[in-house]
Amino acid sequence: MKAGVFVFIFLLVAAGRWIASSAAALRWPAVLFSACCYGLLAAGIAAFISDLILVRSLLQRKILFIKILGAVLITVGVIDGMVALSGLTALISLLFAAALVVILMVTDAAGSAGSELRVSMSERLPNRYLRRRPLKSVLETLLRLFPFPEPVGLYRIGSAGGLHPGGVYPGGVYPGGVYPGVHPPVLVTGNFELTLRRVCSALRNLDCWLLVCESRGVNVWCASMAGYFTTDSVVRAIQTTNLAERVSGRTLILPQLCASSISLEELKTRTGFSAHFGPLYIRDMQRFLKNPSDPAIRQADFPLGARLEMALGSPLLLSIVVTLVYNFIGLGHLLVVLPLLYLASLIQGFIFPVRPLRRIGPWALLYGAALFLLTGLLSRALFPDHLLLYAVTVGVGASYLVNEFSGWSPLLKYSLIPRTKPEVWVDTTVCIGCRRCVDVCPRGVFRMEAERSVVVAEHRCVLCRSCFSQCPSGAVRHSHDPKEPTRSFPGSAPPAP
């Protein structure tokens, strides 16, 4: 819906500018139409500002930054366009914007409250999840900022509906006992189509059930951080698919990256299903079933393929904003600016692991400054009349794209989130040795020693909130835990009495 609104605004503004410049004989229709176009832009800015009041999570702060950036650039464009308009047009624009903001907020609230859950009751896994669809994957990679939801469902993979050919399924030792080897595992994932197809491809040789839960068409990591993939999502999927009546086991394997928003105790109480957090990447599911305590399957990495995927997807929203602004400057410039922005993003994807500055903020400034100078030199030779325009756009855009790299992977903290340095410690007097903090941390902050968890790499913390959210005894203490009183943390040791 939001993508459609962006496109609609762009088309209307373009049409309004064309009418205002070429249809002198239609003065009043042109003025009215232009006012509506600029009113749409003003309404978008007002909607961005209204989101400021509703921010509740780290992901929302990240999205808010993107929106603020867009609002600033669009405002510059609106001011540029309003200079040529009359006072009457400006008044009509403001009134139109006010009315539109009210309509958008009311319809959005009504749509969120009354959205119907799409459910598939077929046990057969759709063939489209197993087919290689390169064009579809490219499209979803480029547009991954927007949701691609699939129906909630329960699918049988392999011979999960009957007996395993060997009579026993892979088992593993958990803190609570041995994973039952006589029942096929029930794996849980979100309903983002790209994720779902990759999960199905990785599981095609494993006999299991796959429970697809509502995550609003967003990948599990982002959906969990935004509060979209929660205990309620899993409970609702269990109930709507009649899971208890269709599977023999009573154990779920959840994605590790949803740990910040899932309560295992509440899930057990409400559904009767026990749950454990699986490996961080679905490719390691076989290893997990053999040895759930393997620390190697819990750690995040950021390989070249993932970096290039992000490099192709992250400039999208920036491109939309630049397109809206350049609508007032001249759309022909986009043929130069947009390819340069995507090239800057791809270069960043290649060199990110060997960047000279490890901290994201300084590196973003350095990279943006370098692109500013390089684009300036290129423009001086090829486009001298637009040297500053291109250099500023590519330089600022490159800095923004570097910051995006710190928000798309659990390997890094998003650098523009306001925060203090995280402080983490474990109260060994109440730690019960359940190792949940070790299992859910994607950065190896914790380690088990003498059947107790200890902090060994506090500096790696990415503020995912999983450790203290999952600790059943409250032993994990974190300076960013909203329940934690404000005070100084002494590191990995409990405070002195």
How is the largest sheet built, in terms of strand order? Answer: 1-2-6-5-7-8
Name the CATH class of the largest domain.
Answer: Alpha Beta
Question: Regions with pLDDT < 50 over 5+ consecutive residues?
Answer: 111-115, 161-180, 487-497
Beta content = 5-15%
Figure out the total of helices: 18
The CATH level-2 architecture of the largest domain is identified as 3-Layer(aba) Sandwich
Shape: globular
The tally of domains stands at: 4
**How helix-rich are the residues, as a percent range?**
40-55%
Q: How confident is the prediction overall: mean pLDDT?
A: 76
The CATH topology assignment of the largest domain is Rossmann fold
Query: Roughly how many Å apart are the termini?
Result: 55 Å
Largest sheet report: 6 strands, mixed
What assembly state would you assign to the polypeptide chains in this entry? single chain
Helix and strand run: HHHHEHEEEEHEHHHEHEHHHHHHEHEEHE
Which secondary-structure class do the elements indicate? alpha/beta
The radius of gyration computed from the alpha-carbon positions, rounded to a whole number of angstroms, is: 26 Å
